[in-house]
Amino acid sequence: MAIRTQFEGSNEVGCFAKLTNKYCLVALGASETFYSVFEGELADTIPVIHTSIGGTRLVGRMVVGNRHGLLVPASTTDQELQHIRNSLPDDVRIQRVEERLSALGNVIACNDYVALVHPDLDRETEQILQDVLKVEVFRQTVAENMIVGSYCVFSNQGGMVHPRTSVQAQDELSSLLQVPIVAGTVNRGSDVVGGGMVANDWVAFCGMDTTSTELSVMESVFKLQDAQPMAIAEEMRDPLIDYLTT
Questions:
Q1: Cα–Cα distance between 113 and 154 in angstroms, integer?
Q2: Among 154, 188, 197, 218, which residue's CB has the most CB atoms within a 10 Å radius?
Q3: Structure confidence by residue, pLDDT tens digits, 34-80
Q4: Quick one: three-class SS letters along 20-49?
Q5: What distance in Å separates the CA atoms of residue 15 and residue 191, rounded to the nearest whole number?
């Protein structure tokens, strides 16, 4: 399911939230409406963590993470780090990263298996990505833009990239990521798809300006029509397997 929402009048949902299959970070200082949209969909399955990063509300642009871990920039305060660590599931690692390109969410896009990164990202950061997030790392551009995190969003089910990405580049990305990729927009024609939406394997959130056509493309490529939270799907599958094997 894809859901429209706003952060204090801004449609750039991907700037103020970070969503994975294991946790969701949302920025401090929003209205209850914004939080209730996320918590209504997610609270039964994953924690929704209210936080800032380095004193800013742009949590979605400052961090990168997946179900294995979360990387935060060096500007993150000890208090913020401790708060996030206490709120995350026990099996999710969190690590501070000394990286010149400190808005990690702008320069890295990842799912649970693969990361696309800015061509100039430090080698040390690449190594940390492999160790903490357990991903294969590819240095890449999207429609000739180096800030890959701003111009693409992908889950383990599918992905959306900048509308000017060529068909050949979409095919290359699709074979790298092993998921279907489409070129698309959010928020009535915005090409900054990473800033305008967040998605995991069963739900996506985007800005209020997103058209019904954009919404249906999103639901199709991310396979959200009949998606279920993974925890629920696993709970249902285990008894079914027991039943079938007895």
A1: 11
A2: 197
A3: 999 999 999 899 999 999 999 999 999 999 999 999 999 999 999 99
A4: CCCCEEEECCCCHHHHHHHHHHHCCCCCEE
A5: 14
Q: Where does residue 39 rank: exposed (0-12), middle (13-18), buried (19+ CB within 10 A)?
A: middle
Half-sphere exposure of 233 (CA within 13 A, CB side): 8
Q: How far apart are CA 235 and CA 221, in angstroms?
A: 25
136-139 and 2-5 beta bridge pairing: unpaired
Q: Between vectors from CA 174 to CA 169 and to CA 180, what angle results, nearest 5°?
A: 120
11 near 208, Cβ under 8 Å? Answer: yes
**CB under 8 A, 24+ apart: contacts of 146-149:** 146/107, 146/118, 146/119, 146/120, 147/106, 147/107, 147/118, 148/107, 148/108, 148/109, 148/116, 148/117, 148/118, 149/61, 149/64, 149/104, 149/105, 149/106, 149/107, 149/108, 149/109, 149/194
CB 98 within 8 A of CB 74: yes
pTM of the model: 0.89
CA distance 246 to 244: 6
Q: What is the dihedral of CA 53, 55, 58, 62, to 10 degrees?
A: -40
Kindly report, residue by residue over 176-216, the tens digit of the pLDDT.
Answer: 999 999 999 999 999 999 999 999 999 999 999 999 999 99
